[in-house]
Amino acid sequence: MSALSDLVYGKNNKPWPHFIDKYPVKVKQITELDNDQLEIDIREEGDYLGGRTAAKCFMTRWDMHNFYHSFVFVADKAMEIANDCPLATKTNTDGVPVKVSLYLNDTWGLIYNKGQSAKMHNHWPSLWSYTYCVFACEKCSPLVFPNAQEYLSVTPKTSQMIVFPAWLQHEVPMHTCEHDRIMISGNLTYNAGNQII
Prior knowledge:
Layout: H1 3-9, E1 26-29, H2 35-45, E2 55-56, E3 58-59, H3 69-84, E4 102-112, E5 117-121, E6 128-135, E7 143-145, E8 152-154, E9 160-165, E10 170-172, E11 181-190
Antiparallel strand pairs: 1-9, 2-5, 3-4, 4-11, 5-10, 6-9, 6-11, 7-8
């Protein structure tokens, strides 16, 4: 092994193993949310982050759930989907299955104008991430998971929720439509202090 390999992996250690696991990317239409109110709330809050993140577009603060009930309703729907497809199972010391409790870590709104995009990124250390489409057309830029074994691109539709493991790399190519692509994103994390048996 080379000196660089020794530095990266440790002296006389083999390179890290490569795993091929399958992860759920759940796409679901949600009809109960008030998209008009969500858009109003996003625009009212304003561009808080100014392109300083991977999302090179209008982006609100990360704690919208603390100020807008509409964002809590979106997060509740994301949690329902995540709870229906757990990433793994957990048991207590008696072998009884334990429901893994999630909490909303953060959530924000985004508005993509023509020419804007989101660079490849992930949301680690959260467990689940989600995105909800407030408004888009089927020609709007998709959500892309470039590291999937088979290329995965999800075309946005108004009222569409996508829930996926937070560590998956994802991106949004340049938006080419003349109208806004309006989204909500958020992260759900394991709530170690609130296990439900």
